[in-house]
Amino acid sequence: MSESRPSPTRGTLAELAPYLAEMRPHLLLLATGLALNLVAVASSIGLIALSGWFLSASAFAGLSVATATVFNYMLPSAGVRLFATTRTLGRYGERVATHEGTLRLLSRLRRKVYLAIEPLSPAALQRIGSSELSTRLTADVDALDALYVRVLVPSLVAALAIVGCAVLVGVFAPMIGLFVAVALSISALLGPWLAWRRGSRHADRWQRLDTNLRARLLERLETFAELSLYGRWGAERDELLSRQRERDDEQLTLARRWGDAQLLSQLLLGVSVTGALALAAWWSIHYGLNASLVALIGLGVLAAFEALMMLPQAWQELGKVNRAARRLNQLSESVPTIDFPDHDLAEPSDQRLSLRGVELAYDGHPVLRGVDLELAVGEHLALIGPSGGGKTTLFNLLTRFIDPDAGSLRIGGVPLASLSEASLRKRFAVAPQEVQIFSATYRDNLRLGARDIDDRALVEMLEALGLGGWLRDQPEGLDSWPDEGGSSLSGGQLRRFGLARALLSKAPIVLLDEPTEGLDRVTQAQVMAHVHACCRNRSLIAITHRLQDLDAFDRCVIVDQGRIIEAGAPRALMLDPDSRLSALYRELRL
Amino acid sequence: MASVNPSSPAAPIGSPSSASPTPAQWLRANAARSGYWPRVAILAGALSTLLLLVQAWAIATIAQRMVIDAADFSTLLVPLLVLPCAFIARGLCARLKTLAGTRAGILVRQSIRAELLQRLGERGPLWARRQHSATLGNRIWDQVDALHGYYADYRPQMMLCALIPLIILVAVFPLNWAAGMILLITGPMIPLNMAMIGWGAKSLQEAQFREMNRLGRHFLDTVRGLPTLKLFGIGRAQAASVERVSEDFRRRTMKVLRLAFLSSTALEFFASVSIALLAIYIGFSYLGHFSFGTWDHGLSLFIGLFILVLAPEYYQPLRDLGTHYHAKAEAEAAAEDLISLLARDAADGENPPARGWRPPERLGLRLHQVVARYPGQQRPALDGLDLELRPGETLAVIGPSGAGKSTLLNVLLGFLPIESGSLASDAGEPLADLAREEWQRGLGWVGQRPALIKGSLADNLRLAANREVDDAALWAALEQAQLEPWARALPWGLDTAIGEGGQPVSGGQARRIALARAFLRDAPLTLLDEPTASLDVESEELVIDALDRLRRGRTLVMLTHRLELLRLADRILVLENGRASACADFATLSAPDGPLAYLAQPRGLQHV
């Protein structure tokens, strides 16, 4: 993947630009944070430098009683107290302001990223690997928020601290000021830059090893039963551990590089401080610089280093932020988008569905090979056939999660593609196989489509689907929240919950993907009876593996290997000994 | 706040204990795994402070000579040479500290991960399945890595927080007791300050952690649920909700943060005030306004500056600790998850030691009143099962879901110990007396979703072999499993990479790879779980064909729903509620008054 390539610096700004732009509305707040940070750092330098001068000057003055009595100690001692106060307050204010700004920024970033991925086709998104992808996505968004607080602020503060320190010194001795500016800049940049340069290869390698190893562990855990049965777990464990050592060696190398950078920084700092002190001493002997300024210069340079200490981390963060931004940019560019017109281009005459010659392939593997299908208004149709035959893909086509390679899909004579997204969504109620429960009350989860459904209707629906007992077990009824991932609902319950959600919508066409999977026979019959009752006067397509479900359908269609291989009334097909349906039915199902 | 006491006894990890340790206790106990590296890190930190004294000496000396003594430049040469050396030595100390900390973190993580994988092997697949592989993987991988910062940075820094101020106090007091007192009083309360930092950082971190997690979860939730949101036509509208929830979290977090920041501000305040007080005290002493604290040896500029240079460093370790606090919070969160994984509990099955048992040529089994129960379940999954499995017979097992079919397989696989009753080989050897590994050498296995590992076809086949096998044996097994033509057509034959990222393998092919493994394993007892489920007609016939060859000379137990396979079986065991409701051949069971009578009707509509 692109991640492993050494990151080209020239692209960094371009990658980050859209995220930097998000800061504009909060500029005032962010600037305040930066200013307060500067106040804190300046006070820190000022406090120690002024104290150093005050000591030197008062010690010199204290050499004779005459100078001691006329020495104006009011001003420096007031300054010392002032700096002590501003340092404290500046630090506190800076923390509050930057966090406030960062969190506001994060809100906007999340919105922006969400809006960027929202138009992507869910089918394509799912294929990228839904859970891994979404986890990474959140991590990447979180990484982006470091851009301001960990990269921009420290860099700007360090730069301004160097300038400030150089000016402070330069006021008394311009040449020394220049030396300080150059020396501090070099020590600020060289060490971290070298560490980054020399470490980035190892960081990439570490990242690669880590990703591979993690994937390997997950794969081996999934096959753990067989590995352990075949007595291979011990060898597998040793292999994992030895590869882990390889990865950790990279981390150790990175730590070594980091240590080198620290050493280099200290060396350069040593040169800066010593150089400044030596120059100050030389200047005071030969050019009449006030000797009491020697300590001020030395201590000022030393204190400025506090601001530079945050820089190496900023460099490291920049790499992370950059990688995150690149991934997000790539994602929104690489995944196909399904375009919807803003308004309906034509008005469907009714809710009749018509599919003609629909073909579709994933990665060159044909999934649908010319499907023709009509659904009359109010007709109840069952789709059956082996898994992987293309049934769910038909649903994805109808909801335009994916567009066909060839053929047409029409509703009431109008191509699906000429309907706006809102208008299309209003026509279909869908219960997919994988029901997603959101972190919200069960009530809100049920009313996703229509906010105006009252509790009575919700409870009735749950009762009818056999979820009444479950609802009564919930501590706060419909106001209860699901656990993370909806694990408080069992598989069968979760499916019925999704079913309830779809049936509560008033859409004229209902699509159900294996609504009774995982249910016992009694519940299954109850659920299907309710489905048909709810869909009276509505069109219904249900994918099912349960042949017991078929009787109440008007028509059933068998889909296998991307084609419709049989269609007709269930009872008629069942009685025909040569039909595929009766062959399927002969398979023993206990 | 963790205690500073380093000598807390490192309890043997995973020893049986009545109460599970708190995360903080557990983290401390596991520090022993890092060897001497934490001490090296602490030593480097302490040494760095000693070098700071040298730096302070050099700076103070230069100022003293310049300002007071008005000495010649040549007198500055020694301090000017010593000063950069001290900086370099401090750099070396920093490098050593970084390295030692990293090594400590790595050692702990490697040791804990090794133990986790070991424990996993001991606990077996049933236990692993209950944890969900993704969660388990996350714990073994990410959570263990999350411990790093605690051992690499936080713990050494904790020690330095006590050590460094002490060194500075020891250096300052003999020079000037008043300055020492200022440090002692403002600093003080170092324990108090640490507690404050701890409290502040803790509540700060916890709040931030919690809120950020919630926020992250909501976002994750929304992204994952995007298809659903779109289906209900509220995909775009949700953007507003994403922002609103994020803003809600911001308001709540900031409320906590404003308060929590006060504690680090207090530290900042003490540090600033102590420098200011020192500067004013020393300056006023020079001017003759104060004359105490000097032990009667006076207060030179040298002493004053020496103390002033040390003052900021007096508080530095505490400030550093604050920045490492997130590492501690992260480690504690991870520890909470890891404790239960490493703890031994009563549910752990005992695995008897290996005794050199070898599977016989032919193997039968006797089950008498077998009761088996999954941990935490009320109802036993097998409830008094009687069965005699004859050597060499093919037994099909049928029954409604929940009747105990999979449980029977898990018991036979050695993954689930029986609760009562007896389970022995036909030679009378109780299964419970055999080491799990020894028993499993006698087993072959064909599952519904055979495990394919990333690797070559040969690797995938050899996985199951009990002994060294050559390529000829692999080809033979492939032929038996009807896979030979497919394998011959592969670009690199046996060396072709299959599975993820390699040659795609269909469900039917995977099933036949599992069958080839069973041939290769050549075990007396082979267990099969729905060997033909969700296969197309062609693959199904190939599988049935291969099965017919596999059963010769072996004992087979297979769960199935397929008529053809039932006909293949010598006997059919009908399970109901964890018990055998019938066990006979197909003809008997499908006789007019048998339980499978309806199967005998040629075709037509038996109504549901």
Describe the structure.
The complex is a heterodimer of chains A (590) and B (608). Chain A is an alpha/beta fold and 590 residues long. Chain A has two domains: 8-334, ABC transporter type 1, transmembrane domain (ABC transporter transmembrane region fold); 353-586, P-loop containing nucleotide triphosphate hydrolases (Rossmann fold). Chain A is built from 20 helices and ten strands. Chain A has helices spanning 12-21, 27-61, 65-70, 74-117, 122-144, 146-172, 174-222, 224-229, 233-286, 293-308, 311-334, 391-398, 421-427, 442-446, 455-464, 468-473, 491-504, 521-534, 570-575, 580-586; strands at 353-362, 365-375, 380-384, 406-411, 414-415, 428-431, 509-513, 539-543, 555-560, 563-568. In chain A, strand 9 and strand 10 form a beta hairpin. In chain A, helix 2 packs antiparallel against helix 10 (293-308) and helix 5 (122-144) runs antiparallel to helix 11 (311-334). The longest helix of chain A has 54 residues, at 233-286. Chain A is elongated and about 120 Å long. Residues 1-10 of chain A have low confidence and may be disordered. With 608 residues, chain B is of the alpha/beta class. Chain B folds into two domains: 23-342, ABC transporter transmembrane region fold, CATH 1.20.1560; 365-600, 3-Layer(aba) Sandwich (Rossmann fold). Helices cover 58% and strands 9% of the residues of chain B. In chain B, helix 5 (133-145) packs antiparallel against helix 11. The longest helix of chain B is centred in the middle third of the chain and has 49 residues, at 238-286. Mean pLDDT of chain B is 84; it is low at 1-18 and 602-608. Classes of the chains: A alpha/beta (590), B alpha/beta (608). Chains A and B meet through helix 2, helix 4, helix 5, helix 7 and helix 8 of A and helix 2, helix 3, helix 4, helix 5 and helix 8 of B.
